[in-house]
Design brief:
By secondary structure, the chain is α/β, with parallel strands linked by helices. The protein contains 37 helices and 34 strands. It has a seven-stranded mixed sheet with strand order 5-4-16-15-14-6-7, sandwiched between helices. The chain has a six-stranded mixed sheet with strand order 27-29-28-34-26-30. β4 (149-152) and β5 form a beta hairpin. α12 (302-315) packs antiparallel against α15, α12 (302-315) crosses α16 and α12 runs parallel beside α18 (385-398). It is globular, with a radius of gyration of 27 Å. The relative contact order is 0.13.
Length: 998
């Protein structure tokens, strides 16, 4: 990885300088010259040679690069002259993880011929991981789904788009008439851009259902719920860049070096400045290899470890007492619970870490402030995921680290737009922007969409279903298989749309196969057929197969064949330019939505506020207009200030933004004249008010040292003003810089504005729209403008963060053992929750499963903890990246990491095949990697593989020519039952297995 230091005051990049033709020199030489010109002056010679591996000389490196042969487009038989055609540079963003790495695509005569990392990007600074370096192959991938297809007699056959759309629509109407709109389930995508994710939630609403969800459910739903219920917004509080200001960083449940490789660029710079790095993980990862202190814990025992740290902090008086008094509610109750339950002996028993190491970590956190904490799915994917993430928040609150540069909770999201899809996309319990499903929310969006509220209500099976959260994607299989009388909706699921989602990223694969076979309709909309196609075509149990089932594959565009915005993990929005026209017969996701809506009878309502553009002669909603509609309604989380014009200006002028602060000191865009001064890169949400208010975005949330119009803030007043006689609002003197109200206050609405005498500061037009509204539903933005700009106050109020979350199953986070574990003794001490009979429309089991496992002595039959994680070469379910030959070459086998002690006992040598068995009855055939990365009690497997099924290759069941290059067993074929008690997150980080030599 090239660790670049970007020069300050970099020249602004204009559209004209990035879209040009080359004359005398080839575009490749020009590209190399430009890249080196950007990189070389930004660091000293020693650092450049050491970090880039160019010690042999730049000349040799450039000479080697010329060995790459340029692809030639078909023409009149003569090779195209180098540099003679039309060359355009299209700026896009990597479609893999959430770091948001920018890349310049070199397009010659409409063909994407090369790519360059963007050295000016303040996020990736010219660096790419293996996946980012192979983006072009994703766009031009030869193993993509090229045409609509239908499963006929076990084989996929090509059909026309009109046939596919007409047949699917007919089946949707038939199922809806017979069983209601809730009989169809819509699985959206964290790969959709913001506009597509938003449009899909709108589409499903007009279809008359809340039965929709996407990848965030099974990666960070526990984060969103837990963190939002602690202090207001369920997102990363700071940024990758801000970690450069940290003095200590605690990574717990994050293997950033493989999952978010380029983020490590900022952490390694922090280490150069003295930051201490602590990694807590059941496995010695590549991230742990960079740590100053590595702590091995038992999977799922995060709370004992975190509260073990808190025990020493409280015992030694290291907590920030004034911060807690002014800004935190319920810490006294937490202190009492921690001191009583998590003494060092109990901590060691539960998580395996000795007191000396726990005290060492606590001491480092105390002595090196501000400190940050990083987590990913290692914390979230548990039945108590919501409690684990809150324990991390409580630790940071106790240390006074939240709302400070270098501090915060830096929660690394997974997919490139899982943050944006969560914010404005197809969530089953909310409308875009986390607006609930109450009537007021629906009326707010009906007004924005320009449709009658009663019309929308009439689309649903009943008013009650309109207000009821839908099923979660983690449990759609139970929506099919569960007894109808136990489901809290009229019908079982009969149809499922997989709209950009990998089935192998979900647990209970054997049961998923059964559910797929029982459906009446299964539709895959994806650039690649995904494992869904092969699973659906593969023969299953004869008693499960629905003879009337119809299966369709629809080829969607990649994100390089359309334009739109994408939200990185730090909440910054970036605008992707369209790189190439749709390849083969692929169509953009929003075009497909529009074409279905037209056939279903609500096409005009869906696109009422959008212009249409012609793509291959067909109408497609303009993404810019969809974003403008988002700007007009998503006030809650500040998606209103990021107009297309502002975002596009940011992308053209990345060099104006400081690497450490993400702020532009000055600069004007040469295309639209926009003044960048004061903006934070990507206008990280919340970017409040209308675009004309020119709020700069919020780089670090809850920072009281800044004015609210300067990105400052405080904790959100979202939970009332008092609890059992205790104040929930901030104490006197605790407020954002320059606020006229210098104590805690509730959120703003029309009544509060009138009581304060601020109402007349609204214009007449604003008054008309703000009357009877609060800051979240005032479509004029006037309440926000007056509150923030005129008086320096925060529209969402000024309250205390909650260490005590009384509306959750455990008000204070409690450690509970997983449903499937290897320690029945600890299950007895720390039992799971009671069963729930109606939870997200389904019965959900906890204690009955755990107790049965104890009675059946499952731990003796399956003595190893089985956990999973990422590899740097692949992403998500892996179908896209394993279809990329450049990445497939780097990682060719699904494997299991086994400790040498276990390998010796099982007589398994490194590189040999092994069978993995789990309590589900599944068995996986994988390659053994014998390593001390895992302890003797734990095995690890990556979750990116599919294409093998219990030892058999599924190649024959993929559409011809569209199977991934590398195939392997999916770990989730074998994973077990278990769901978070708040969000229905699946428990994939902690289950059990046994191993034998194959």
């Amino acid at each position: 990885m090239l660790l670049t230091r970007k020069a300050t005051g970099a020249a602004l990049d204009s559209a004209s300088s990035r879209s040009s033709s080359s004359s005398s020199s080839s575009p490749f030489v020009h590209s190399l010259r430009r890249g080196l010109a950007n990189a070389l002056p930004t660091m000293d010679r020693r650092a450049f040679l050491r970090r880039s591996g160019l010690g042999v000389g730049v000349g040799l490196a450039a000479g080697q690069l010329t060995l790459m042969r340029k692809a030639e487009a078909a023409g009149d038989g003569k090779p195209a002259a180098v540099g003679a055609g039309k060359i355009e540079i299209k700026r896009t963003v990597c479609t893999h993880c959430s770091v948001g790495c920018a890349s310049d695509a070199v397009v010659e005569n409409g063909v994407w011929v090369r790519q360059e990392p963007v050295f000016d990007s303040p996020l990736n600074l010219g660096a790419h991981c293996a996946k980012g370096a192979a983006l072009r192959e994703h766009g031009h991938g030869e193993y993509r789904l090229r045409y609509p297809m239908k499963l006929v007699n076990g084989k996929y056959e090509r059909i026309s788009w009109d046939t596919a759309l007409d047949e699917i629509t007919a089946r949707l109407k038939e199922l809806t008439k017979a069983s209601g709109p809730d009989s169809i389930y819509w699985i959206g995508s964290s790969k959709h851009n913001n506009e597509q994710a938003y449009l899909l939630r709108k589409f499903v609403s007009f279809f008359g259902s809340n039965n929709c969800d996407h990848q965030a459910r099974i990666c960070h739903s526990t984060t969103v719920a837990g963190v939002a219920n602690t202090w207001g917004y369920g997102a990363m509080t700071n940024s990758y860049n801000d970690m450069r200001n940290s003095k200590v960083a605690l990574y717990i449940g994050s293997n950033a070096a493989e999952a978010h490789p380029v983020s490590m660029l900022h952490m390694l710079h922090a280490k150069e400045n003295g930051c201490k790095m602590i990694v807590v993980d059941p496995r010695f990862t590549r991230t742990a290899a960079k740590a100053d202190e590595y702590v091995r814990i038992r999977s799922g025992s995060d709370i004992p470890f975190l509260f073990g740290i808190l025990y020493h902090i409280f015992k030694n008086g290291w907590e920030d007492k004034k911060y807690i008094n002014d800004r935190v509610f319920g810490m006294d109750e937490v202190r009492a619970d921690v001191m009583a339950k998590w003494t060092p002996d109990k901590v060691e028993e539960a998580c395996g870490v000795k007191e000396a190491q726990v005290l060492k970590v606590a001491t480092w956190l105390n002595e090196n402030r501000p400190g940050t904490i990083v987590w990913c799915m290692g914390q979230t994917q548990h039945t108590i995921g919501n409690a684990i993430v809150r324990a991390s928040c409580i630790l940071q609150l106790a240390l006074g680290n939240v709302g400070k540069s270098g501090g915060g909770t830096n929660i690394f999201r997974g997919h490139d737009n899982v943050q944006g899809a969560t914010d404005v996309g197809p969530n089953p319990d909310s409308l875009p922007g986390y607006y609930g499903l109450a009537e007021g929310s629906w009326k707010h969006f009906a007004a924005t969409w320009g449709v009658d509220f009663e019309w929308i209500k009439g689309r649903f099976a009943s008013p009650a279903m309109m207000a009821k959260p839908g099923l979660t994607v983690s449990r759609w299989i139970d929506g099919v298989l569960e007894k109808n009388e136990l489901i809290d909706q009229d019908s079982n699921l009969r149809g499922v749309f997989y709209w950009g989602h990998a089935p192998n990223s979900q647990t209970r694969g054997l049961e998923m196969k059964r559910a797929m076979d029982k459906l009446d309709l299964l539709v895959v909309v994806d650039p690649y057929p995904s494992a869904t196609a092969a699973m659906a075509a593969m023969p299953g149990r004869s008693e499960d197969l629905n003879p009337n089932r119809a299966v369709y594959l629809l080829p969607a565009c990649t994100q390089f064949e359309t334009s739109g915005s994408v939200t990185a993990s730090n909440r910054s929005l970036q605008w992707r330019e369209k790189v190439i026209e749709p390849l083969w017969e692929s169509r953009s996701d929003h075009m497909i939505m529009q074409q279905f809506a037209d056939r279903l009878g609500f096409g005009k309502e869906l696109s009422k506020n959008y212009k249409m553009q012609k793509v291959k002669g067909m109408d497609e909603p303009v993404p810019d207009d969809i974003l403008r509609e988002i700007n007009k309604c998503v006030w809650t989380i500040g998606y209103t200030g990021q107009s297309p014009e502002r975002l596009q200006a940011h992308m053209r002028n990345m060099g104006a933004f400081d690497v450490r602060t993400l702020r532009a000191k000055s600069g004007k865009d040469k295309v639209n004249g926009y003044d960048l001064s004061g903006d934070y890169f990507g206008l990280p949400w919340p970017c409040y008010g209308t675009p004309e208010l020119k709020h700069p975005g919020s780089a670090n949330l809850y920072d009281t040292t800044r004015h609210v119009m300067d990105g400052g803030g405080n904790f959100r007043a979202n939970f009332g003003v008092e609890r059992n006689g205790k104040n929930l609002l901030a104490e006197d003197g605790s407020h954002s810089l320059g606020a006229e109200i210098t104590t805690g206050y509730p959120e703003f609405d029309h009544l509060l504005l009138k009581k304060l005498g601020w109402w007349d500061e609204l214009t007449a037009a604003e008054k008309a729209k703000a009357e009877g509204k609060n800051w979240k539903t005032d479509s004029s933005g006037g309440i926000i403008r007056v509150t923030m700009k005129n008086h320096g106050c925060h529209p969402f109020g000024n309250a205390k963060a909650r260490a005590l979350v009384w509306n959750f199953p455990d008000a204070i986070p409690q450690h509970r053992e997983p449903l499937y574990g290897t320690r029945p003794d600890l299950m007895a001490k720390y039992p799971t929750h009671d069963d729930k009979m109606a939870f997200w429309r389904l019965p959900t089991l906890y204690k009955s499963v755990q107790q049965k496992n104890i009675a059946d002595k499952v731990a003796e039959k399956f003595p190893f903890i089985m956990t999973s994680g990422r590899l740097v070469e692949y992403e998500g379910g892996g179908e896209e990246t394993r279809s990329n030959p450049w990445l497939a070459e780097l990682q060719q086998e699904m494997f299991i990491e086994i400790n040498p002690k276990v390998a010796a006992e099982k007589n398994i040598r490194n590189g040999e095949r092994a069978w993995v068995h789990t309590p589900t009855g599944a068995k996986l055939n994988v390659q053994a990697l014998v390593t001390e990365r895992v302890g003797p009690d734990t095995v690890f497997m990556p979750f990116h593989f599919s294409g093998h099924w219990q030892g058999a290759d599924m190649l024959a069941y993929y559409p011809k020519g569209a199977a991934p290059v590398v195939r392997g067993e999916a770990i989730n074929t074998s994973t077990t039952y278990g769901y978070d008690s708040v969000t229905m997150m699946q428990e994939t980080k902690t289950t059990v297995c046994n191993i034998e030599k194959a």
